[in-house]
Design a protein that fits this description.
GO molecular function, one term: acetyl-CoA carboxylase activity
Protein name: Biotin carboxyl carrier protein of acetyl-CoA carboxylase
Helix content: 25-40%
CATH topology of the largest domain: OB fold (Dihydrolipoamide Acetyltransferase, E2P)
Pathway: Lipid metabolism; fatty acid biosynthesis
Radius of gyration: 20 Å
InterPro entries: AcCoA_biotinCC, Biotin_BS, Biotin_Carboxyl_Carrier/Decarb, Biotin_lipoyl, Single_hybrid_motif
Keywords: Biotin, Fatty acid biosynthesis, Fatty acid metabolism, Ligase, Lipid biosynthesis, Lipid metabolism
CATH class of the largest domain: Mainly Beta
Strand content: 25-35%
Oligomer: single chain
Order of helices and strands: HEEHHEEEEEEEE
Length: 166
């Protein structure tokens, strides 16, 4: 009997890998409880191309566009936009998974955090819904929330900068 269960688990994992590939996802995580002492925890992920980091750069590019008329000012503006890339900030909190961001526990309730709030390590910053599972994203360190980089209900990828805590 354990061999059949093992074969079913392997087939399930292969099916998850196909879902990952077919839907161009970077990560899937599934937890199944079969009984008191029987569970299956699966995390399937694949390396993300550097293209995702390049996709974050256009967010800062519109700020550089107004500075373009003066050629002498264009070079410092380009350097500033690179320095303002949220993913490279040392206080950036990035998404551990693909999903949808929710800033509060339920519609109409207050947000978990706002800009200027003090947070402690482990405090819930937001929720990422992935495969109908609500995943609370904890603060990796204590500090002050300086910027929130995502909007409520936004679709995010693995590694997307969510907020900056200093």
């Amino acid at each position: 009997m354990p061999n059949k269960s093992h074969e079913a688990d392997v087939a399930f994992i292969k099916a998850l890998a196909e879902v990952l590939q077919d839907n161009d996802l970077t990560e899937l995580e599934v937890k199944r409880d079969y009984g008191a002492d029987d569970a299956l925890n699966v995390r399937v992920s694949r390396k993300q191309k550097v293209v995702a980091q390049v996709a974050a750069a256009p967010v800062a590019a519109p700020a550089a566009a107004p500075a373009a008329p003066a050629p002498a000012a264009a070079a410092p503006a380009a350097e500033a936009s690179q320095a303002e890339d949220p993913a490279s900030h040392p206080g950036a909190v990035t998404s551990p998974m693909v999903g949808t961001v929710y800033m509060q526990a339920e519609p109409g309730s207050p947000a978990f955090v706002s800009v200027g709030d003090q947070v402690s390590e482990g405090d819930t910053l937001l929720i990422v819904e992935a495969m109908k599972t609500m995943n609370h994203i904890p603060a990796p360190r204590g500090g002050t929330v300086k910027r929130i980089l995502v909007e409520d209900g936004a679709a995010i990828e693995f590694g997307t900068p969510l907020m900056i805590i200093e």
